[in-house]
Hints:
Number of helices: 11
CATH superfamily of the largest domain: NAD(P)-binding Rossmann-like Domain
Structural class: alpha/beta
CATH class of the largest domain: Alpha Beta
CATH topology of the largest domain: Rossmann fold
Radius of gyration: 32 Å
Distance between the termini: 46 Å
Number of domains: 3
Shape: elongated
Amino acid sequence: MSQHFRERFRGDVELSDLPGHALLNVIRIPHSVALSPWGLIGRRLLYAFILLMAIAGIVYIDRDGYTNLRTFVDAVYYSAVSLSTTGYGDIAPVSQRARLINILVITPARVAFLILLVGTTLSVLTENSRRTLQIQRWRKTVRNHTVVIGYGTKGRSAVSALLSDGLSPNQIVVIDTDRDALDRAERRGLVTVQGSGTKGDVLKIAGVPRARSVVVAPSSDDTAVLVTLSVREIAPKAMIVSSVREVENQHLLEQSGADSVVISSETAGRMLGLATVTPTVVEMMEDLLSADEGFAIAERTVMEDEVGANPRHLADIVLGVVRSGELYRIDSPESEAVEPGDRLLYIRRTTGQQGRA
């Protein structure tokens, strides 16, 4: 049955088999060049116009050294046909000084003028080549990154949490079909891939087989199930965290291969219920979930001087102990003493004095 679902979403052409230049509108890697091709052309034309006016001014000052040159318009005309190498010959330098100026000033300016105009076209063309090489290099080197599938409300919140936790933007790849959403992700410095997360070839060009973790945050539960199934098939070792709206669909995501499932509707419902009875508890919970200010829940390795100690007696407020991939709450018998290799879930102070990392 899962094979039937995947066949429905499979395209005729595998994107992962396409060369880099064919993926220019699919993969977008943020870079420091802010000017569009039209902006680049406009700037080059402005430089060419300034150079043209400068040469026209020099020629007009020495107008007596030229035949048939009387007005400033004549000087602009001569400069235009000279810099563009047209050279009609109706205006020509006749004095020694005018010819010397042509040799030392106008000839180098002619070369610069041509470089400006031709260079504009080459820059626009080579920009695609540069982006193609950048995409090819990125696809070969990307490793241990995090892929976020779906850049809606949940996806944006997940990215904010990752960035606040210190993950570099170039280690986050966003997959979405919405171009506007991807533009917002790119402005945050994230690598973006346009396409559906249900398609294996889109997942492959996003580097999912080599990803450390994958966040599945689409807008519907059925899409989340199919995406999780596709991700687990091509990335058996990746950590998959999936979001689901309804609790009855949790087991479907777990069966599809999700390591962790977040139930958005149930979590929001509990927060709403608590807010009507104990609003201060909700305020504290929101503080713990926000990594920007106040307190946050974090995880760290056990220090050597903490081995053997009861986690309740440590300087940090410990909520649980992670041992061999299993989480033990602070009140469980397994958490009576900290062992080498354990990791602690604790409340970290995000302002003021920090806990040990």
